[in-house]
Structure formats: C-alpha cells, structure tokens
Design goal:
By secondary structure, the chain is mainly beta. Keywords: Cell membrane, Coiled coil, Cytoplasm, Exocytosis, Membrane, Phosphoprotein, Protein transport, Repeat, Transport, WD repeat. It is a peripheral membrane protein.
C-alpha cells in the first residue's frame, strides 16, 4: 500500500486525487521548486457553461409563420424547436420542453407574441418582447386532437379546429377556453350521413368578421354565422380539401383538392363551384375532365390594385411527371410559372404589403420552406428571381464530416478570405433587399475574430466568419476537383475503399498565421494548400505516393525509409522527377496477382486552373500494399516554419517535406519504438506464403486477412492518434530546445522524433531534413488526444510558424525571401538555456504535465474512470490557459495548467450519436461548438464573462413599429359596422355570454417565461402590478433554493396563477404585454 502512495505522489496528482505524504517532499523538490514560481490565475468562478447561439437550417422543419408588420419569420420543427429570423444577424432558437412536433404557428401581429400548436395537442403563447423568448401560457387539450388554428388580425380570440370536426375558442390574453363551441354536427347538414372529417381550415370573411369559413377534410365547407350560431351556407365537393383562401373582397374563396384541382366558389352560390381549374392537368380535346393530378397541398389567393390576382400553389403536378422535382406554381393572369425546388415543400407563405385581409394584398414575395432550404421568390420582378439568402443556412449543403474552430485569429484573415470568396458568388439574384428585416442587432462586446471551418462529404471545405455570435460564409474550397471523377458506378475504380463519398474530409490541420491548410480525406489522401491572391494554372499537379506497411517481417532497414515508387531525399533526385502522372501496369499488381502500389483516387493529369484562394501545393496518397487497401488517416499536422506535414494511421506514420516534395519518414508504428517496445506483439506472417485470394481452398482465410476491416487484426494495431510539432527538449540530456515532433498513439504512448532542419532560404530547398527517433518514450492511460507546451512562466508555447506572404512574388521580393529564415514565435528560442518547459499531454483517460528536459511527471489528473474523453483542447482564457475536455458521458470539464486543478465539471449532454463526437471542439476565449443536428451548429461558452455579456450580444426580435392604417372601407364600413367587430367577439365568446368551458376539455399551464418582458413594461399603475408580480416570482425562485424545492415550486406557481388571474380580471381591457 505504501509503495502505491509514493508512486502517486511522484506522479504529482492534483488536489482531487493527491495523497499527502511528508516523506515525499524530498522526491518532489526538484519539480516543486519550478511550479511554485507559476502563479495560476484561473479560478472556478471564471467558468460557467451556457449555450450561446444555434446556426444553420432548422432540422426537419414542419411549420412556418410571418409577422408582416414586425417582419419576423418563425419556423417550427418536428422536434419541437422554434427558430425566429429577423434581419441578417438577428436569429433566435427556442425549444418546447415536450419535444413534440410543431404543427402550426400564428403570430399576434405586431404584438411581440406567437402561438405555437404542437402534435401533443398543446398550445403555447411565446413572449417575443425579450431577447430569449419564453412561454407565458400553455393550454393542453385532453379529449381532442388539434388540427388547425386561426387568429384573426387584431383579435384576442384564437379559433382551434380539431380532429373531431369541432371548433373551440381560446382567449390568448388569459389562455383560457371560451364556453362558445362550434360542434361539427351543427355545422354540417343534419341529413349528412357521415362525419365530415377533421377541420383543415378556419378563416373569417375579410369583410365580415362575424362569418367564419370552416373547411372539413372530406370536402365540405361551411360559412358559419357566429352571432346566430348557425350555418349560412354549405358548399360540398366530392374531393378532399387541403386548403382554402379568400379573395380580399370576401365574395369569393378558393379551395385546393386532393385530385390536383382548384375550385373557386361565390359565397352566395353554394350549389356548385363558380370555376374549376386543374393547373397541371392535360386538357383533353373532347371536353372530358382532365386527368387527375397529385394533390394541391396549399393555395393562396392574393389581389393587386393594378392587375390580375396571383394564385400561388404547391403540389398538383400530373402523375406522369415521375422524377420531377417539387414545384411551386405561380398563376398570374394568363401566365403560369412553374418554379422547381431542390427539396420537397413543407409550407409557403405569400408576403404582402398589408396585414389587413380586407384590402388589396399587393404580394411582393413568396417564402418557401423546403425540407432542407429556405427560398424567397421575388414576385415583382420578371422571371421571379430568388433573393440571395443572407442567413447561414447552407452548413449542410453536403453533410458535415468534421469541424474546427479558431478564436482570436490574425486580424487580416477574415478580409482575405472574404475577398477571395466574394468572387465565388452566384449571379442572377433579385436586386431587392432581403424582405425579412425585423429586429435589432445586439451590442458587440467581443473584439476578436473567430473562424469556423467545416469539412464535408463531397470533399468541400467552408470557411465561416463566426465573430460576435454571428455566422457568415467566407469562402468555399472544393478539394475533389484535383481528382478524376468516375462518371457512373460501373466506371468506378476497383481501388475505392469507400462505397460513397470517396472525397469526404476527415481531418483539417490549419495554420492561421501562415494560412497553410492541410486536409486528410477518407480515401487515405492528404492535400496541402497554400493561400494566394493570384490566379495560377498548374501544369502538373505535384504528387507523392506513400506505402505504409504493418509487417514486421518486411522491415529490412532500421530507418524503414522504403518507399518503392518514390525516391528518398538521399537519392538527390530533383523534385520534379517524383511526380508520376500514370502508374506503369507492372506496379498495379504484385507477383501473386494482388493489387499493389495503386492509390484509391486518380489525380487529374490535365493542367488545373486555380482561382485566388487556396491552391494545391502537394497531393499525397497512400497506396494499396499486396492486395490490402490503405488504412484511413487518423491524425495529421502541418508546420509552416519547418515546411513539413506528418500523418499517421493504424499502420504507421509518414512525414513529408512539402517544400522539397520528398518523403522523410515512413515507419510502421512498432518501428518507432526501436528496441524499447513495451508490448509483446506477434509478427504477422509474410504475405509471400499466403495464397492468392482467387484460390478456392483458402479463400475465406485470405479474404478476411486482406480485408481493410479485419476486426481482430485492426484492434491489435497501434494507431497514431496525435501529432504535434514544437521546439522543445527532445531528450533528458538536452541543454537547449530544438525542433521536434511529438507522436501520440492509441495505446497511450508518446514518442519524440528529432528534426534537423537545414538553414533557411536557398539551402532549405537543397539540403535534406534529417529525421531521427530520439528514444524518448512517455506513457499514459488511454489513447493520446492532444499535446501542448508551456514555457517556464506557464505560458503556452505555440508551434513555430512562418508569417503569410504571397507565394507568387516578383523577383526582388523572392531574393529578399530567400534570405529570410522562417519565423519561430516560440519564446523558447530566446530563453536562457537553463530554463525548462512543460509538456501537457491529454489522453482519453487522464492528463499529465511533464517537466522538460528532466521528463518528470509533476502533475497528473485522472479525468474519467468509467467513460472516455472525446475531445481535449489546451485553450487560452482570461490571459491564462486551461485544459478543456468533453467526455462521452456528457460532462464538460476544465483544468488549470500546469497544476491540473479541476475548475469546471458540468453534465452537459450525453453522446447520443457519432456526429457530436466527430464535430465537438473547444477554442480560445471560452468558446466551443458541435453539430447538434445534421444541419445546425450549436455554439456554447464555458466562460463566465461571456455568459454575463450574452444578454447584450443577443439581438432583439421585437421593435416598436406602428401598425399601418386600416384601409378606408367607405361604403362597406357602414354596411358591416367596421371597428366594433372585436367588441362583438367579446360579447359572443366572453364568460358572461357563453359561460365557462368544460374543465376536462383543456388544462391551463402557466409558463415560466415573461419576467424580462414584464421588467420592460413596468410603468404607471400597471407597472406597480407588474413589479408585484415580479417580486412574487423572485420570491418563488428564492424559495426554490431551499431544500423543500417541490413545495416551493408549487407555492410559486399557485401564487403566480392567482395573481395573474386577479390582474386579468382587474385590467382585462389592457393588452396582455402591458402587464
């Protein structure tokens, strides 16, 4: 037991797991002297975890609404999410707790509120007058399913249609049911033998609010007189109804049907439709009915003062248009435009100049919500062009396969990327301003720039400006264009190791200072890019092929520099000679007929025109070896100061000098250990003795051995999992730091490779880089994830880098450049020889801080016993640094450096899918992100300061806008009594007239939100009441901090409800938001 304790102390565990022992003082003295000098400034109070913003297209959208006065768009989803969009940069995400699908959304126009109807038969009232909208009230229907809702403009009475065919009426101020109910059997003729089906439409006559038009699914439409409580007219049709829309004069309405027809009805002629149209039906010559078409899912009927009305519809295509894309049809006078969409249409809305339904509508745009996109069509321009979408909704254009996040980038980076990206923009958009323009931007409190890079399944890479909680695409790079495309599936090379997406991006390594970019793809390919503002044509694409082996038997030389198709630097051949553009037939298969020496993808051999932006410096591909495909790359690193790129997989490691275009290192993982290998491994049998896979006798055995997914074989292999270039002490005896590469493996080993670089300038291109394993080996539990280095003061030592400069300069500049040495920004180069450094190493299970050059472990922290770390990053925060980890069990943790004191441990979210594991990343200044759905990025912060400032940074959805004046009705005003209609509703639906609704029908639930909205509205007598209500709620919150939490919550809710009810009765003439 004593031995165990001493070892723990030697390992220097942090306070959580350290064992105090006086006898260890002497053993820790050497290390101890050093770390007492480092003052750690980060404390637990600097950390707080909260979600900041969600970007991207709402995943699985299901509902759409627009406030024409506030100019705010709302989208609901199948998972109960609510996304609100104002002007570009004003966005908001909310979530219904139940997670039930949103079936309909209704704005209280220009009142800063929204009603959502969910598939679990609940209605919710959202307060949008606060930066983070919250639910004020909820109403849960117990006995009936909600199918359709309608809220007339400037009314507080919401009509709710149900599956049973009944209509209930909800007061949106108190969120209580009226006793007034329209029963289905009263609405349809008593002689009708069958149930009319669910309510699919409700609307009031634009010219007479006392008449309600009710559409039943079966094809029956009823005009109901609210005052006399009976049907004025019934319109029957033998085709099911999908939607109904009024002409603004209230004399006609239009229905869309399941057979692809539209019927236009005169209100006072219920016997037959005034007109029947089949927009996409083939007109038959002999006067017969046109052939039936697909259902018209929605129709809108919009009038203009100056010309013909617009009839806009979705669906309705003829059945013989197999394979045709979904369409939106715009009928205007005699012209019919069919607009094809990329995805199926979820819903659409026509945006009009007026919110009043009884005026000429003057439509100017159509917003179309698609399954995976949002499209706005300009109705005022010929050809109906679309508006350029300013929201970051194209994250998922091709599925995201990896993400990287960089905060505090060089200031010139975003303008540089923006300028090259601006040339990529499509033409032909509408000339008008984006019409969804509501809300106000928040206050920008962050001064640093942030960039997100996403890698995609089609091989594309997108750079995004993510500064100040916004997101905007800067530049898109297509990495697949360097390869020959296979035209069809039969044409595919048999060398493919993946069936789909052979160009998918797996790893991104980027140096923001030098702008060098390196990517690893799924087909075991690596591409290095250099940033340039000039266009170039590359005659021959520089290319290397690397043969990575996992066969101890085949190793003949200790350095393992065997790369058959590629000369090594030692041969002195000029770089141009190692760009094989085609593979000789002799190399495509080995002597026993197995595929050999061929890469998975074929690089184009035609000249490649490269636009300004990222341009190819070198393509590296791993090749097939004796019938076994190359294994996918598991780690990657690039260093611009050294001119080197390194990558590894479960077979081994390869290092390439991308300036000289040569392979410097090509070793199996086991060879990295030399004679120090701590594991007993069985050498694999030489392939020469194996029979070719065509031989029937041993077919099953040889096929499984040569397969790329031989499970036992791969499990036993040690993959390269982390790589880090740095300038530090490579061996215990070193007196000064020197360039080296630290390599981490999946078995928890860290190995160090020394780099001997030639002088800069001309010599760098002529003399070889000498690479040699140093013999240094460190051990941790679990696969190595991340490594970093601290100087003697505890500051981060960034890897050396070269500042960016234009690669294609004039001759004078080139001469100057040759004399320049790569800039190393590591402070170690200027440090005194005696000063030491610290290596920080994070694995799946633990973190260690190791003093260099002594290699003593001075701190150790076991991060998790039962789970494993998915992502670990060493990041800067508040002028200090820490280690941030995300575990598979859902915990986010941070640790101080160098002492690894736990500072934050919050259960955030469990690992529910591989997408989160693949995309989660931390960056500087307390920022982090992950892909929360296939189409959306969720950003979060672990910085207490950012959490505090978040409220200011968020945009405001609600702004004070005057409601446009009502149209002058002239003659109609006298006829229908204009302004007094809402009072009629109060008389009809209020408790005094209609009585109370059945208690068992629906249950009222007070919402948690609205406190901030209440604060904003506190003025006068109403303000006093609001303050009382606020104080009451705060009292409830304080009670909630006591141990008897349940009782306190019940008390708070009860008091809140009573108080709200009293206020409602006392001030029922006031608008709800004034409380």
């Amino acid at each position: 037991m004593r031995k165990f304790n001493i070892r723990k102390v030697l390992d220097g565990l942090s306070a959580v797991s350290a064992v105090a022992s006086a006898s260890s003082a002497a053993q820790q003295q050497q290390a101890g002297n050093r770390e007492t000098e480092i003052q750690e400034t980060l404390q637990s109070e600097h950390f707080q975890l909260c979600k900041t913003v969600r970007h991207g297209f709402p995943y699985q959208p299901s509902a759409l609404a627009f406030d024409p006065v506030q100019k705010i768009l709302a989208i609901g989803t199948q998972t109960g999410a609510l996304r609100l969009f104002g002007r570009p940069g004003v966005e908001c995400y909310c979530q219904h707790d139940s997670g039930a699908a949103v079936i309909q959304l209704q704005f209280l126009i220009n009142e800063g509120a929204l009603v959502s109807a969910l598939a679990d038969d609940t209605l919710h009232l959202w307060n949008l007058r606060q930066k983070r909208p919250a639910i004020l009230h909820s109403l849960k229907f117990n006995r009936e399913r909600i199918t359709f809702c309608h809220l007339p403009f400037q009314s507080k009475w919401l009509y709710v249609g149900t599956e049973r065919g009944n209509i209930h009426i909800v007061n949106v101020e108190s969120f209580t049911l009226s006793g007034y109910v329209i029963m289905w059997n009263k609405a349809i003729e008593l002689s009708s033998k069958s149930h009319p089906g669910p309510v699919v439409h409700i609307s009031d006559n634009p010219m007479d609010e006392g008449k309600l038009l009710i559409g039943f699914e079966s094809g029956t439409v009823v005009l109901w007189d609210l005052k006399s409580k009976k049907a004025d007219y019934r319109y029957t049709h033998d085709e099911a109804i999908h939607s109904v829309a009024w002409h603004h004069e209230g004399k006609q309405f239009i229905c869309s049907h399941s057979d692809g027809t539209l019927t236009i009805w005169n209100v006072k002629s219920p016997t037959k439709p005034f007109q029947t149209i089949t927009p996409h039906g083939k007109q038959l010559k002999d006067g017969k009915k046109p052939e039936p078409c697909k259902p018209i899912l929605k129709v809108e009927y919009k009038t203009t003062r100056a010309g013909e009305p617009f009839i806009i519809l979705s669906g309705g295509l003829s059945y013989d248009t197999v394979g045709r894309r979904p369409c939106l049809t715009v009928m205007h006078g005699k012209s019919t435009a069919v607009l094809e969409m990329d995805y199926s249409i979820v819903d659409f809305l026509t945006l009009c100049e007026t919110p009043y339904p009884n005026d000429f509508q003057e439509p100017y745009a159509v917003v179309v919500l698609l399954e995976k996109d949002l499209v706005l069509i300009d109705l005022a321009q010929n050809g109906y062009p679309i508006f350029e979408n300013p929201y970051p909704l194209t994250i998922h254009e091709s599925p995201v396969t990896c993400c990287e996040y960089f905060a505090d980038c060089p200031v010139d980076l975003i303008p540089a990327l923006y300028s090259v990206g601006a040339r990529q923009k499509r033409q032909g958009y509408s000339k008008k301003e984006w019409p969804i323009s509501g809300g106000n931007w928040g206050v920008i409190t962050q001064s640093y720039s942030e960039i997100i890079i996403t890698g995609h399944a089609d091989g594309s890479i997108k750079f995004w400006d993510a500064s100040a909680i916004t997101l905007q695409v800067l530049y898109k790079l297509k990495t697949a264009k360097v390869f020959e495309k296979s035209r069809n599936k039969d044409d595919r090379p048999s060398t493919d190791i993946v069936d789909e997406d052979p160009y998918a991006i797996q790893i991104i390594s980027w140096c923001p200072e030098s702008r060098m970019l390196c990517i690893a793809g799924v087909s075991a390919h690596v591409i290095i890019y250099r940033f340039s503002k000039q266009e170039v044509t590359t005659e021959v694409i520089p290319m290397l092929e690397v043969r990575l082996l996992y066969e101890i038997n085949d190793v003949e030389t200790p350095d393992g520099e065997q790369v058959p198709p590629v000369p090594t630097p030692g041969t002195g051949s000029n770089p141009q000679s190692i760009v094989p553009q085609s593979h000789p037939s002799t190399s495509s298969s080995s002597s026993d007929g197995l595929r050999d020496n061929v890469p998975c993808l074929k690089v184009k051999n035609a000249p490649l025109k490269q636009s300004p932006g990222y341009q190819i410096e070198l393509v590296i591909q791993l090749v097939w070896v004796s019938g076994e495909p190359p294994q996918q790359i598991t780690s990657l690193a690039i260093n611009s100061a050294y001119g080197l790129v390194v990558f590894g997989n479960c077979n081994g490691i390869a290092m390439v000098d991308y300036l000289q275009k040569t392979v410097l290192l090509n070793l199996g993982t086991i060879e990295l250990y030399g004679s120090n290998d701590p594991y007993r491994r069985e050498p694999r049998s030489p392939r020469k003795t194996r029979q070719p896979s065509g031989d029937v006798k041993d077919n099953s055995f040889s096929r499984s051995r040569s397969s790329s997914v031989t499970s036992i074989d791969k499990e036993s292999r040690e993959a390269i999992s982390a790589l880090h270039f740095c300038e530090t002490f490579t061996r215990k005896a070193d007196t000064s730091p020197s360039p080296c590469l630290w390599v981490g493996t999946t078995l928890g080993t860290v190995l160090v490779i020394a780099l001997n670089l030639p002088p800069g300038g001309e010599q760098r291109l002529l003399q070889p880089v000498i690479v040699s394993p140093s013999g240094t080996i460190l051990r941790l539990k679990g696969a190595i994830l991340r490594m970093a280095f601290l100087d003697t003061t505890g500051s981060l030592v960034p890897p050396a880098h070269e500042p960016w400069r234009e690669h294609y300069e004039d001759k004078d500049e080139k001469e100057k450049a040759k004399k320049r040495r790569p800039v190393s920004v590591s402070p170690s180069s200027s440090q005194e020889i005696s000063e030491n450094q610290y290596a920080v190493i994070c694995s799946e299970k633990q973190a260690k801080v190791i003093s260099l050059p002594s290699q003593n472990c001075i701190y150790k922290q076991n991060i998790t016993e039962t789970s494993f770390v998915l992502r670990g990053d060493i990041v800067s925060l508040n002028n200090s640094i820490c280690l941030a980890c995300f575990c598979a069990n859902g915990h986010i943790m941070t640790f101080s450096l160098p002492s690894l004191r736990p500072l934050l441990d919050v259960y955030y979210l469990p690992l529910t899918n591989m997408r989160i594991a693949r995309t989660f990343c931390f960056t500087n200044n307390g920022q982090a992100l992950y892909l929360v759905s296939p189409t959306e990025i969720q950003r979060l912060t672990y910085s207490q300061e950012t959490c505090e400032n978040l409220q200011e940074m968020l945009g405001e959805l609600f702004t004070l806008v005057e409601t446009p004046e009502a149209p002058n009705r002239g003659f109609f005003k006298g006829l229908f009594g204009g302004g007094a209609q809402s009072l009629d509703r109060e008389e009809l639906f209020g408790e005094s007239a209609s009585g109370k609704a059945s208690r068992s029908l629906a249950q009222h639930i007070p919402g948690p939100g609205g406190i901030e909205g209440v604060k904003g509205a506190a003025s006068g007598v109403v303000g006093e009441l609001a303050r009382a209500r606020l104080a009451l709620d705060e009292r409830g919150q304080k009670l909630g901090e006591l141990e008897e939490k349940t009782a306190a919550m019940l008390y708070s809710a009860d008091s809140f409800s009573k108080h709200a009810h009293e206020m409602m009765l006392k001030y029922k003439d006031k608008k709800w938001y004034q409380f």
